[in-house]
Amino acid sequence: MVLADLGRKITEALRSLSNATIINEEVLNSLLKEVCKALLEADVNVQLVKKLRENVKSAIDFEDMAAGLNKRRMIQHAVFQELCKLVDPGVKTWQPQKGKPNVIMFVGLQGSGKTTTCTKLAYYYQRKGWKTCLTCADTFRAGAFDQLKQNATKARIPFYGSYTEMDPVIIAQDGVEKFKSEKFEIIIVDTSGRHKQEESLFEEMLQVSNAVDPDNIIFVMDATIGQACESQARAFKEKVDVASVIVTKLDGHAKGGGALSAVAATKSPIIFIGTGEHIDDFEPFKTRPFISKLLGMGDIEGLIDKVNELKLEENEELIGKLKHGQFTLRDMYEQFQNIMKMGPFNQIMGMIPGFGSDFMTKGNEQESMARLKKLMTIMDSMNDQELDSLQGSKLFSRERGRVARVARGSGTSVREVDELLSQYNKFAAMVKKMGGIKGLFKGGDMSRNMNPSQFQRLNQQMARMMDPRVLQQMGGMQGLQSMMRQFQGAGGMPGGGGHN
C-alpha cells in the first residue's frame, strides 16, 4: 500500500496517546515529535511539517479545554485534519462534461510514467461509459508512439499518432480535430517529457497547449524523486495552467511524501494516484479516505463505490435467495467474479478498517487471486444441475462419481474439489443463518435489526469461518463487531469514515 512506512509510524505515534494515563502538553509534544519525524523521513517539505506542528499546537489548548472533553479524540482529530491539509490545496477538482469533447493534456518529466498514465486514465473513463481516445504528440522520445499504440490496442482504446510528422503541435491539432469530429468525449493528448532546464521543450509545451486549448492540463508527478518534485511542479505551473496532478509510482515508495507535499507548489488538486504497473493499479484520489487508509482506518467510502459499481442491487434474484437463506454453487461463482471485478485484492483489503497496509503483501495478493481462479476453474467443470441445485454439496456426496468427473475436467485433484465443496458449505450455512434473521435486509444498522444475542451469534459464526491470523489483524472479536457495524452504517459516516 501507498507510503506504508509513514502510515505505520504515524499510527504508532497516535497509539501512544491511548497508553498515556494523563494527556498533557508533554504527551502532545512527544506525539508531534514522532509524527514530524515520520513526515520528514518520508521527504515531506520541512516548512510544511513545521506548519503542521504549529497548527496542531494552536488547535489544542489544554488550559482552555472543558473538563469533560475527550482530549485523545481531539488530538487525533487535529492531527488527521492537518494531514489532510498537507495534500489538499482546497481547490475544486475539474470534472469532464458528458456529451461534449473534453480535451485533457498531459505534461511532466521524462520517465514519470506519463504515457502509461494516459492509458490508465482513458481506461478508467472508458469503464465508466465515456467515449475515450488517445493522441500521441511525443515526437521527442524514440518509441513513444509505439508504446502508446501498444497500450491503447491492449485496452481497446482508439488512438492517433504519426511516424512521419515531426511537429508535435501539428500532430496534437490533427488528432484532437479528428476525434472531435467523431464525437469523442475524453480526448487525451500525451506530450514529450521535459525538464525545467530545457527551455525549448517548455516553449513547445506552451505551443501544443495553445493549439489544442485543453480543458484540463494534468501534471504527472513521479513519487520516487521526492522533494525535487517541488521545483519541477512550480516550473510547469509557471509555463502552463496546470489544473490537476496525478502522482505515479506510489506503490510502497518511502519517499512519496515529497510528491504529495509538492502539490502545494502547483496549488492544484491530486485527482488520481498510480499504485502499480497494471492498467487498473490506478485510483481516484480523495483526501480524507486516503489519509484514513494511510493510518489503517480503512476507506469505507471507496469500498462502497466499488461495490456500487457492481450494481448488485439489480440482481434481485440473488437478493431474493439470500432473504430465504438459499445459496447455490452458481451464486458462489458469481460472488467470486464480483471480487475479481472489484480490482486488485490488496486495494480492496486496504479499504477495510483494521486491515493495515502491511497486511496484504503482493505475494499474498497473487496467492489469493490464484486460489480464487482455481476454485472458479473447478466450478467451470460442473454442469447446470450441479451449479443451480440448492442441495449442491449433497448431490456430490451422494454421487461421488461427480467429484471425480469435475476433478478430471478441471485438471485438479478430488481433494481440491472436496475443499471447494466444504468452502461452499460454510458459505451456504452462513447465508441460511443470515437469511433467517428477518431484519437483516431492511438496510440501516444491522445490530438494530437484530436482538443482541442474534448479533453475537452471527459474529461468532463469522469469526469461526475466518482465518485466525485475519481475525487477530482486525483486533479480535471486538474489531470484527465494530467492522460489521461500520459496514452497515457506512453510508452515514462523515468523510468516508475518517476520524470517528
Automatic annotation (TrEMBL):
It catalyses: GTP + H2O = GDP + phosphate + H(+). Transmembrane segments: none annotated. The keyword rRNA-binding does not apply. It is found in: Cytoplasm; Endoplasmic reticulum; Nucleus speckle. Its main location: cytoplasm. Keywords: Cytoplasm, Endoplasmic reticulum, GTP-binding, Hydrolase, Nucleotide-binding, Nucleus, Ribonucleoprotein, RNA-binding, Signal recognition particle. One of its GO terms (molecular function) is GTPase activity. InterPro entries: AAA+_ATPase, P-loop_NTPase, Signal_recog_part_SRP54_M_sf, Signal_recog_particl_SRP54_hlx, Signal_recog_particle_SRP54_M, SRP/SRP_N, SRP54, SRP54_euk. It comes from the Eukaryota. One of its GO terms (biological process) is SRP-dependent cotranslational protein targeting to membrane, translocation. GO terms for cellular component: cytosol; endoplasmic reticulum; nuclear speck; signal recognition particle, endoplasmic reticulum targeting. Pfam families: SRP54, SRP54_N, SRP_SPB. HAMAP family: SRP54. Component of the signal recognition particle (SRP) complex, a ribonucleoprotein complex that mediates the cotranslational targeting of secretory and membrane proteins to the endoplasmic reticulum (ER). As part of the SRP complex, associates with the SRP receptor (SR) component SRPRA to target secretory proteins to the endoplasmic reticulum membrane. Binds to the signal sequence of presecretory proteins when they emerge from the ribosomes. Displays basal GTPase activity, and stimulates reciprocal GTPase activation of the SR subunit SRPRA. Belongs to the GTP-binding SRP family. SRP54 subfamily. The M domain binds the 7SL RNA in presence of SRP19 and binds the signal sequence of presecretory proteins. The NG domain, also named G domain, is a special guanosine triphosphatase (GTPase) domain, which binds GTP and forms a guanosine 5'-triphosphate (GTP)-dependent complex with a homologous NG domain in the SRP receptor subunit SRPRA. The two NG domains undergo cooperative rearrangements upon their assembly, which culminate in the reciprocal activation of the GTPase activity of one another. SRP receptor compaction upon binding with cargo-loaded SRP and GTPase rearrangement drive SRP-mediated cotranslational protein translocation into the ER. NCBIfam families: SRP54_euk. This is Signal recognition particle 54 kDa protein. It comes from Paramuricea clavata. The lineage of its organism: Eukaryota, Metazoa, Cnidaria, Anthozoa, Octocorallia.
